[in-house]
Automatic annotation (TrEMBL):
NCBIfam families: PRK08243.1. The keyword Oxidoreductase applies. This is 4-hydroxybenzoate 3-monooxygenase. Its EC number is 1.14.13.2. It comes from Streptomyces radicis.
Amino acid sequence: LRTQVAIIGAGPAGLVLANVLTRAGVDCRVVERRSRAHVEARARAGLLEHRTVATLRRHGLAGRLLSDGVRHGWCDFRCLDRSVRVDYGTLSGGHAHWVYPQQFLVRDLIEALGRGGVRPLFSQTVRAVADIDTTRPRVRCDTLEIACDYVVGCDGFRGVSRAALPRAHRVVPHRYPYDWLTVLAEVDEAAPGVVYAVGAEGFAGMMPRTRHLSRFYLQCAAGDTEAHWPARRIREQLHARLTPLPRIESLPEVRVLRMRSSVTEPLRHGRLLLAGDAAHVLTPSGAKGMNLAIADAAGAAEALVRGLREGDAGALAAYSGRRLAEIWRVQEFSDRLLRLLHLPPGEDPRFALRMRLAAIERLAEPGPHAAAFAHQYVGSGAEGSG
Ligand code: FAD
């Protein structure tokens, strides 16, 4: 097979990239190791930032999300029997998230690509990326090989594209001293909004998804496993840390999420670019992962269109530097929020909780400090992430 851009991975990053390139007249192929049914059913993120939606809208990819998604502009912090509402919609001057599950967006993006005549190669695993220092890199898959001008690795945290980078590329990792149990739950009514509960027994969080599905998070010990979390314990801990909460009918998915962050630097070598989780991993604290993946894809698409259609190599040369500046800003925000939500080990919880409540209350008080947080959280304006 021969194409201009070979894209590895049909997650949000790979699919946004493929759509934008196709609409700009750049030929591309997407290779995905899973089946179409699998990627369209994979429930993960669900909060789309203001700028992410603006990007999707600009490229004609937001139709269904705008009609079926729900706008959301506040989050509640619970701490020491207080509930503090941060109305980030108002504090940011009217910007909001859209609640729209990742798997619905993935489905929409595959459909949109199909309308442009491109069908990802599903159930085809990429085994290696070769010759990225030449003008004809190649992507070796299970049963075929793709020769192309550029390869974009959108293959997530465990993909193969990162391995093709020379050793000089640094992965800057960070491991937090706890993990999160992430629980997808069927509920009797939609979660009213995003809730973060900070307490001596550990953090708990609730994120809306659909009318009958919500995602919950429970802080657990680093290295913990699902086996230690039978349904009864999950329900007990959710009630203990997060009451009031909707009635939980069933728990279709329970996983331990290792709480780690990492960034690969730089994001490009020769004819290989990285985008999305292949380039960086964030904790889910600020709901940034999918948004940053889509922002990377939009940046890579712009650089490739300029390089391939207009012969302007400058944008490709600038891709890594531009994206890394923003990626580190978003990492810093997610890290700051995560530290607010957890008590430092060994510190007297009475003091640590008072400190956190004071910090949370500042986020709700109109003024520059709260406005800056609101813009970063919702991804709007100069302070945004997407
Ligand atoms: P992915 O979505 O991981 O897509 C990569 C694709 O590459 C996959 O389809 C994979 O099958 C494919 N692939 C991998 N290796 C190969 C190979 N060798 N050959 C071919 N294909 C390959 N983010 C948020 O913004 N908000 C949230 O609330 C949020 N919650 C989350 C909850 C959970 C439980 C999880 C797991 C993640 C969450 N995230 C959240 C993170 C978000 O889902 C990711 O950041 C996002 O999926 C990244 O998109 P991506 O396209 O870069 O990678």
